[in-house]
Amino acid sequence: MRVTVLSGGIGGARFLMGLRELGHDVTVIGNTGDDVTFLGLRICPDLDSVMYTLGGGISAERGWGREDESFRVRDELEAYAARIPDAGVPGWFGLGDLDLATHLLRSQWLAAGVPLSEVTARLCRRWEPGVRLLPATDAPVETHVSLVDGRRVHFQEWWVRLHAEVAATGFEVVGAAAALPGPGVLDALAGADAVLVSPSNPVVSVGAILAVRGVADGLRATPAPVVGLSPIVGGAPVRGMADACLSAVGVETSAAAVARHYGARARGGLIDGWLVDTADAGEAAASGVPTRAVPLLMTDVEATAAMARAALDLADEVRR
Ligand code: GDP
Ligand code: CA
């Protein structure tokens, strides 16, 4: 089966670990809205989370970045910043020494005119993630966040530096409306046997993919069934601060509200089916699409593979 998955970073990557166990032909459309340039280096946190997780290089403890990481370069940069306050050192962003090698190569290739899709394919030659990883777009896009205090900051600054503690009033994926979907993205939607929306952040991960011009229409038009998995379990994000993103766009933090946010494809929305955790089974009727309740905690690869199997079973049920 050809399965296409919309994925953010950590949540999406963990889901893919389970899906990969089922042995299907998997294509991942990865979020690039988190991308950022620091120190002249282009950093793609969500693509790297997928690549490192599936390639066995992710830090198990942190959940992001590399295992056995050191931070000597960051320490050295901070020694400069201590004397040069406007040095432009993003001390709050965790740039490890091993991780830097990825960003150095990516930046060198991008500067030479290699598109991000090809850069990603090259990096994956080393990591062999076992899936085809496609950036949502080759165009540089970045999610910017408007804050209640009137500031407007890059998503990374709000998420990592401010811990999403200052309330957001809105998000803009700068560049997305004019961007084209990356090579293979629309074909991966049109040619899939099933499309899965991973339990990624609905606003800044999945939302930023869908903001790329043409991607949401590609999802609406695919003959394949589209099934989403809830990132909200028991009325809360399992990890991270997705609730801060949902409330900024006026969506309640509940499994059913996220399903209604995506909307039923039958009525111009994006999904045909929705998986919720058994804790949220009572909300199933409020989702607006056929909904099944199964355990949705990605505690290990086996549990996650069972989630993926349930998602594909639901895709079969709702296939038109
Ligand atoms: P990020 O880009 O690294 O923030 O990762 P994603 O956007 O791909 O995924 C983040 C989302 O994954 C969060 O909103 C979490 O609620 C969700 N998530 C994390 N672990 C689990 C889990 O075990 N089960 C479910 N259902 N969702 C999870
Ligand atoms: Ca992310």
Q: How does this structure look, described?
A:
About 40% of the residues lie in helices and about 20% in strands. β3 and β4 form a beta hairpin. The protein contains twelve helices and 14 strands. The protein is globular. The mean pLDDT is about 95. It is of the alpha/beta class and about 325 residues long. α2 (about 45-55) packs parallel to α5. Bound molecules: guanosine-5'-diphosphate and calcium ion (CA). The site of calcium ion has 7 residues, from α2.
Strand order of the largest sheet: 5-2-1-9-10-13-14
Mean pLDDT: 97
* Unreliable residue stretches: none
Number of beta-strand segments: 14
Tell me the radius of gyration.
Answer: 19 Å
**Strand residue percentage:** 15-25%
Query: What separation lies between the terminal Cα atoms?
Result: 17 Å
The number of distinct helices, counting runs of at least 4 residues, comes to: 12
Supply the helix-strand structural class. Answer: alpha/beta
Helix content: 25-40%
**Main sheet makeup:** 7 strands, parallel
Element order, helices and strands? EHEEEHHHHEEEHEHEHHEEEHHEEH
Protein topology:
Layout: E1 2-7, H1 10-20, E2 25-30, E3 36-38, E4 41-43, H2 45-54, H3 72-83, H4 97-111, H5 116-127, E5 132-135, E6 142-147, E7 152-154, H6 155-161, E8 168-174, H7 185-190, E9 194-197, H8 202-211, H9 215-221, E10 226-229, E11 232-233, E12 236-237, H10 242-248, H11 255-262, E13 273-276, E14 291-293, H12 301-318
Calcium ion binds at residues 8-9, 31, 34, 45-46, 205.
